[in-house]
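To: structure subgroup
Subject: Chain for Friday's discussion

All,

I'm putting the inputs and outputs inline so they're searchable in the archive.
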Amino acid sequence: MTVRRSAAALAASAVLCVGVAPAALADTAPPSPSAPPVIPSGLYGKKDPSFDGVWRQSFALLAQDTVGVKPAAQAVDWLVGQQCANGSFPAFRADTTKDCDATAYIDSNATAAAVQALTALGGHDETVKKAVGWLKSVQNEDGGWSSNPGGAMDGGTDANSTAIVISALTSAGEKPAETKSKAGKSPYEALLSFQLGCTAEPAADRGAFAFQPVDGKLLANADATAAATLAGLGTGTAVVPSGTDTPATPLTCPAAAGADPAAGVAAAAQGAAGHLAEALKKDGHLTAVTPGADQPTADTGNTVDAVIALAAAGHKQSAAGALEWLKANSAEWAKGSPAGLGTLILAAHATGTDPKSFGGTDLVAALNATGPAPQGADTAATEVESEKDEPSGGANLWWIIGAGAAAGVGIGILLSGRRKKNQL
């Protein structure tokens, strides 16, 4: 759900590849750097969109719509135009005159995000229908989804992808409980299999969700936990502010035996929210150990996700401290980032906070300034100095990915800030 930090993530993947299997890389010469990509005029953000174009555009449009801003027609058209003939959305394709081919990274996460954005905007029923149809067609037998279905980086069902697809299906008017795989499994069954239950150790991890098992063990993952909370509550990232505010509580134990997955998923979501609330108490924000580091640092992206999840669960007070921390500490993290600014706007909206006065920043104006001016906007008032385009290193990035895959490292997860395996 958070910002796709492709450049940083791939730099980290390079470190991991070298550390894990130096022999696999030593004899492989990377190709020469490619030219920076041309940023489409309808796209939000100035940085290389190769790994997050559809994702960041979806969150930018969803955030604008949520606060009553009518996105530029060319921005919406750009997103619609990214769809492949089979209904899926790639992470990004520069040439939309050609259909998606085997080199495109077909992304269930990007597709699910686009479904949420285009459903909210309205008027794109056929596009949404095709996307939903594709998502259903690539559902795994266990009921869940991988991030790159059928692709070279298909790592099997994971909690994050399954959760965001559930949210997309819900937003499009589908019933996830009735979206069964060929084996008769529902998405809820797949999602619940990733929750750390009443016997998990340490006890503080109970209620959290894992991304995927690691050596057969479930490890608490903040990103998966926040995404699963929203999915279990039947909502997407655009959370309608609630008038209720109750304290978050731990996972109910013992869990009800034989509970129907559709009925039990809401209770599981509340348990996940309780875990997030406890995790936020220590520092007022979440932390993560990034590749190559030996000490945890502030995890701004997942802190935003946690705030949205807690607000959706009706626990705004439990999110209040983290919200204040974000007001004071998120400016640099979100600068020039459509997805970062978009998720902050959605967090502000979910908690009843004014996004136009968020820690001294007008998030809406900052988001609008990263792309084409919204309809009816005063373009002169939103002009800002754009960030310098960063070299894409496109060929080098794909070389790193390929080398990582050859070395047996799960690099695909690192391509997305919202799919990383960092623990709380």
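Points worth raising on Friday:
The CA atoms of residues 86 and 228 lie 27 Å apart.
The chain has one domain: 6-419.

D.
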